[in-house]
Amino acid sequence: MQFELSKEQEAWRRLSQEFAVKYIAPTVQERDEAEEFSRSLYDELGLLGLTGICFPEKYGGRGGDCLSYILAAEELAKVDDSLAVSLSASVMLCQWPLYQYGTEDQKERYLKPLVEGRRLGAFALTEPQAGTDAAGQQTTATRQGDGYRLRGNKIFITNGGEAETYVVFAMTDKSKGIKGISAFILEKGMPGFIFGKTERKLGIRSSVTRELIFQDVYVPGENLLGAEGQGFKIAMTTLDGGRISVAAQALGIAQAALDYALAYAKQREQFGKPVVANQGISFLLADMATRVEAARLLTYQAAAARDLGKSCAKEAAMAKLFASDIAMAVATDAVQIFGGYGYRREFPVERLLRDAKITQIFEGTNQVQRMVIAGALLKD
Ligand SMILES: Cc1cc2nc3c(=O)[nH]c(=O)nc-3n(C[C@H](O)[C@H](O)[C@H](O)COP(=O)(O)OP(=O)(O)OC[C@H]3O[C@@H](n4cnc5c(N)ncnc54)[C@H](O)[C@@H]3O)c2cc1C
């Protein structure tokens, strides 16, 4: 196993870090307060190439690997997890299935503008009655002529309303269960495709989460992604990659919380000495740092497994489960080290704690990750 980053991976990491610190950090607190998504910052990520790191040059990408993208996501999440979430939804949940399952025509039409950062993407699986039980899709796609009519709604969709391109799952044949689910490419502006409630959230407040409503939306047959009935497989393999990206977000949040807590503990004095001089605090920091490093290894290992083209469902689930749990724990400990100041909105650890929670919930709750890991153990 190689523990050194390649020159290319290190370059993506540094580029993302420098951009995040210089251009994203100055407005992060303000956008969180205003609950405002910044499309112009997203566009900048596209210009830098971050939306295309792990896609071939043929489709407008940079021909890099998944680990390079994960390093970029971690650096963005250190500064602004909301923006890292928007990027992840577009890159890992929309672009990836288009690349993996799309026809050449679909790649040219839909994938390329996303990879180049000229469009934003979204992934729509969750419904009011189909959350953890994603197989229980109620949205239907009924054949009509050469295409389909979509009816139903999706909730909690990251980038909803802001995105131009959507990978949407719907039931084409209820009698076939999960084999009756298909995936479709929808575009903002299709007649009958409208946007509902925007969620007001605990954290990642400057990432948009919105309801999608399909009122007899006509979707041409050429917008079927993969084969009819392949939708559930497309959703699950897409989420494997998405979970590594969530692990990277959690890792970034945890690293940032640790960095802030360490700096604060060195400068805050009580009883005539810095609070870090107390073992109660320095041992806490030692545990936080150890957890962060362990999460980093699991996350990079999952990305490396994906780069080898191996099935990485178990590795992705382990990375997401562990990194998100430690992000919550480390952010909580960071607030504790800040004392009362950590509870105030002016200090970033308050936001990090709120942002950390979602990493335990989306792209399959951590209960689901345990199901995936246990399933793999029982199969081995
Ligand atoms: C901010 C945000 C962004 C999101 N972005 C997207 C997106 O872009 N696209 C998308 O499709 N979805 C998205 N989601 C949806 C997210 O993936 C779901 O919320 C998540 O999968 C859980 O579904 P649920 O909320 O319906 O919870 P439920 O399924 O109702 O679960 C409730 C609780 O029961 C537990 N539970 C359920 N079944 C079991 C079981 N069999 N065994 C043990 N425990 C169980 C769950 O773990 C959870 O703790 C987003 C959600 C949020 C909050």
From TrEMBL:
List the signal peptide residues. Answer: none
Residues covered by the Acyl-CoA dehydrogenase/oxidase N-terminal domain: 6-117
Domain Acyl-CoA oxidase/dehydrogenase middle residue range list: 122-217
Q: Which UniProt keywords apply?
A: FAD, Flavoprotein, Oxidoreductase
Q: Which InterPro entries does the entry mention?
A: Acyl-CoA_DH_CS, Acyl-CoA_Oxase/DH_mid-dom, Acyl-CoA_Oxase/DH_mid-dom_sf, AcylCo_DH-like_C, AcylCo_DH/oxidase_C, AcylCoA_DH/ox_N, AcylCoA_DH/ox_N_sf, AcylCoA_DH/oxidase_NM_dom_sf
Checking Gene3D superfamilies in the record gives: Acyl-CoA dehydrogenase/oxidase, N-terminal domain, Butyryl-CoA Dehydrogenase, subunit A, domain 2, Butyryl-CoA Dehydrogenase, subunit A, domain 3
Q: Name one GO molecular function term.
A: flavin adenine dinucleotide binding
> Please, which domain of life does this record's source organism belong to?
Bacteria
- Domain (Acyl-CoA dehydrogenase/oxidase C-terminal) ranges: 229-377
Q: Which family does it belong to?
A: Belongs to the acyl-CoA dehydrogenase family.
PANTHER family from the xrefs? ACYL-COA DEHYDROGENASE, ISOVALERYL-COA DEHYDROGENASE, MITOCHONDRIAL-RELATED
Q: Supply the name of the protein.
A: Acyl-CoA dehydrogenase
**What is the species listed in this Swiss-Prot or TrEMBL entry?**
Propionispora vibrioides
